[in-house]
């Protein structure tokens, strides 16, 4: 057996537990590209490409290497030739299998093709999942035998900065029935490493689609003054009216919201109130404390809610005065919830939609320890939005049961909904 044949025989037909021959067959039957964004082979690498080419030659010849059915066949394998293909992260030298008749015309890497697209998106996807440039470099080297510098990986991910900047200033809808706002804290180095807030706003459109309206890096604590600037920017980008703003923000935030959208109802997140209650109480009472407020937030009227809260306060104020004070201090922001019909209550009961996004932000930020600057932080968080996690709900998906909610909003807010 020749040296080339021995090398070919030792090369894998399975990569990362995936049968390449099966991938080729699926791609052909489903008319799906093997390369490029969204393709079956999202990580274009030396190992994957060579294994895929081997599988394609098997299909062309009609038998696999070593199969007795190939003995005496008119067309046989005839070693390999080398070819350099250029990817977005540099050149990769690959071995392309040949047949004796010269009739093999590979489709994965066409005969005269010198560039394979899709590597950039693979690197960006890994970056969005929280891997650092060093970890991506190691991953590509160990798994795919592709050597890429950390500087080049940074350049690839920096390509999204211009895209992010355009996204951040894009025009928005004139009306949003609901806007949810919150902040997440990440570590950013500015001379020294410090916790910095990243402000997040998610809107629900009149079509029931969730949309991340923007990301903003702040300084120091989560302040109403900075929120005022964020809300003003949203208005300047076209948001003229919001029916409900759901939040759990600092003192002064309601005034900032009403200064921006005077007709907006401001809703304190109910789940945040309950979580705050747990912060001031012993774990052994948590079950009781999370259950009892249900009579408050399911009350049919403000008066009934007040009576339920008075009973709750009587039970707990002596033991946990700070917990009861949290409810009292948030009461004016909580009671708008009670005037809403059931479909709207369900929509604004919690800011869980934005908290789900924040949990993905934290996952992406956790492995880095800290970001070198705020642009690096915003870039990673933007990529989390841009690259949804597979098999997890998309934050920008449609609200379930939206038609029922929209009809209720139209009855409740009248022309502010129906004329738009």
Automatic annotation (TrEMBL):
Keyword list, A-Z: DNA recombination, DNA-binding, Transposable element, Transposition
Region (Disordered) location: 63-92
Domain of life: Bacteria
Bias (Polar residues) ranges: 75-84
Task performed by this protein: Required for the transposition of the insertion element.
Family per record: Belongs to the transposase mutator family.
Name of the protein: Mutator family transposase
Organism field: Saccharopolyspora mangrovi
